[in-house]
Amino acid sequence: MRVLVADDERLLADTVAEGLRRFSMAVDVCYDGDGALERVGVNRYDVAVLDRDMPGHTGDEVCRSITDSGAGTRVLLLTAAAGIRDRVEGLGLGADDYLTKPFAFAELVARVQALGRRSAPALPPVLARHGVVLDVARHVATRDGHPLNLSPKEFAVLHVLMRAGGRVVSAEELLEQAWDEFADPFTNAVRVTVMTLRKKLGQPAVIHTVPKAGYRIGGPE
């Protein structure tokens, strides 16, 4: 899952981003509305976490831009205003959820995960294919009932492949969805991560390489 975090409170934004990365999310960070608009214009995000009161373009304006674009990005608005009128106003802009500051980080994670599952087509909280079970909310992966000790990046790659439902996923798509904006497009990180993931999944092989196309988990059903 790829997430944008935009908040002019730099410490808060960086802390939230780092925390979400521990749950295998690829997170880009910016500190004002102008940067947020620039990023949503060039990147495809599953979820955008936006502070309503950013300088420059406000979170409200960024939210409206995302909604008008039809990109399908889910929006979680953050604000210090806790009144019902403020929440209604925020949701009226097209936001999918609303969270007031201060908030519990566990709740933020749960809300971001829930919004990610509401992508089109909607996905269940637990994905299962070919003996592999991925519980995204609990951040747990198993194969044939045995736990898998995956790194955050391995978990993220497996999540992308499981979401694809047997469709071939290119290395470029994996890089876009499982790494943040600072990833080197010429790196061999995808190949190396897939290789280590294969070893941890064991035999028989679950992830298959499709020459000159990418990777798929199992086969088309």
UniProtKB/TrEMBL annotation:
Keywords noted in UniProt: DNA-binding, Phosphoprotein
All residue ranges annotated as the OmpR/PhoB-type domain in the record: 124-219
Any one of the GO CC terms: cytosol
Molecular-function GO term, any one: transcription cis-regulatory region binding
Residue intervals of the Response regulatory domain: 2-116
Database matches in InterPro entries: CheY-like_superfamily (IPR011006), OmpR/PhoB-type_DNA-bd (IPR001867), Sig_transdc_resp-reg_receiver (IPR001789), WalR-like (IPR039420), WH-like_DNA-bd_sf (IPR036388)
Gene Ontology biological process terms from the UniProt entry: regulation of DNA-templated transcription
Keyword Acetylation in annotation: no
Residues with 4-aspartylphosphate modification: 51
UniProt DNA-binding residue ranges: 124-219
SMART domains: REC, Trans_reg_C
Highest rank taxon of the organism: Bacteria
PANTHER family associated with the record: REGULATOR OF RPOS (PTHR48111), TRANSCRIPTIONAL REGULATORY PROTEIN CUTR (PTHR48111:SF36)
Designated name of the protein: DNA-binding response regulator, OmpR family, contains REC and winged-helix (WHTH) domain
Species for this entry: Micromonospora citrea
